[in-house]
Each structure stands twice: as C-alpha cells, then as structure tokens.
Amino acid sequence: MKNNQLPLLSKKEYSDLHDALHYMKMHGLKKACQLLSLPNTAKKAELIKQIIHFIKTAKILTVPKIPLRSQAKNYPMQPLEPSSLMLYGSYKNDAKTRSFFKKLIGPYFHFTAFGIDWLNNRWLKGQPPTYQEFVNFWVKEKTRRKNIKVKPKDEWMFIRFMQQTKKSESYASKEDLMKKWKKLQAKKSEKAFQLLKKAKLKLEKL
After folding, report:
1. Is 195 domain-assigned?
2. At residue 57, does pLDDT exceed 60?
3. Which has the higher per-residue pLDDT, 150 or 72?
4. Distance between CA atoms of 63 and 69, rounded to whole angstroms?
5. Is residue 199 part of a domain?
6. Cis link prior to 39 (omega < 30° from 0)?
7. DSSP secondary structure string for all residues of 51-95
8. pTM, entire model
9. Which of 42, 72, 123, 183 would be 90's cystine partner, CB 3.0–4.6 Å?
10. What is the pLDDT of residues 157-189, one digit of tens each?
C-alpha cells in the first residue's frame, strides 16, 4: 500500500472520528475494534489509540504489556506501608488505600488521573514505585498544577459535557443532563461507526 493512499479518511473525517471515539462506551469501542479486526482487550484509551493508529497507517498497533517485574505475582505479599512496592495486580483504588494516603499526605488527597497515568508509566517501564515515591510525586504534581492550567484529557468527555452544559443550562436537572448526554453519546457512536465502515471499505478496495 502506498503512503499517498493513507490515512483511510480525510482530515475532516479523521478529526470527527477522533472526537466521536472519546464519547463511546467500552462495548462500543470493542465492537469498533472487531469491525477492523483489531485486538479489543486493552483499556479505553489504548483501544482508541489503536483505532486511530490503524486509520492513519492501516497497521495494527502493538499494545504495550506490563512486564512481570511490575506485577504482584512476581513478589511476596506487600503490606500497605510507605516502603512497600505499588504493584500491578495488588494496588487498589479503594477506601483502605485512600485512608492510607491521607495519613501520609493529608485529608485533601484524592485519586487523580495524573497519579494513575504516572503509576501506569512506571509499571510499563518495569519500575514499580514504592508508596512513598508515589506520595512524593503526587504532592509535587498537585502543587505544580495549582499554578498552571492543565488541558482536560480527551477521555474526560462526560465530565466536560456535564460542566459545560450545566453552565449554559443552569436550570437543567441531573436527569435532563443525563438524557442529553446519552443522546449525544448515541449520535457520536453512530457517526464513529459510519466513518469506520467507510475506512474499512476503502481498505478492502486497495
């Protein structure tokens, strides 16, 4: 296949697809991957990245796997202590762990996307951090973000929609907002599948 035949969609269509995919639920993204004969067992962000990569290159993106040295099954049981390793398969975002972090950081601690992203990155590198290392990073990053405006992640479409719609329609009830969200979500999902089917058809003709 020649590079001038890629991506499989126009620039406008690609942009629309990128936007629409971030509104979709997991089962919709899994169906989208099946349509393109792509693996569909990764997390939401990875599935979207995989679809987008395929549309741009017509190649399957290898989803990175967490190495054994970051997994709990490769270590004895780790107690919930500052010096213990945070391991994939044993670390949990639960009330017990949240209470533990509040003792180390303060009552203002809460689970954040930037914390989870950092942790996943360490796992993928095969460098599981200790709980104390996570605390040090979280406090430093939380302080840094007080002074800068961080762009919301594309995966936060639901939160962004709720915040923006609530501002423009302050009278709307939570039920009304949810109805609007589900309607928009269905519309975006339909648009995504239209574009994906078009891309697949073009690929089959090449």
Report:
1. yes
2. yes
3. 72
4. 18
5. yes
6. no
7. HHHHHHHSSPPPPP---GGGBGGGSPPPPSSTTSB--BTT---SH
8. 0.76
9. 72
10. 888 888 888 888 888 888 999 999 999 999 999
Q: Are 185 and 23 in contact (CB under 8 A)?
A: yes
CB contact set of 153 (below 8 Å; sequence gap of 6+) = 113
d(CA 121, CA 113): 12
What is the average per-residue pLDDT within 52-56?
A: 93
Identify which has the larger pLDDT, 154 or 68: 68
Q: Could you tell me if residue 58 is inside a domain?
A: yes
Whole domain around residue 189: which residue ranges? 3-64+185-205
The answer to whether residue 37 sits within a structural domain is: yes
Which of helix, strand or coil describes residue 135? helix
Smallest CA-to-CA distance from 134 within 153, 111, 157 is with: 111
Cα–Cα distance measured from residue 14 to residue 7, given in angstroms and rounded to the nearest whole number:
8
- Close Cβ partners of 178 (under 8 Å, ≥ 6 residues apart): none
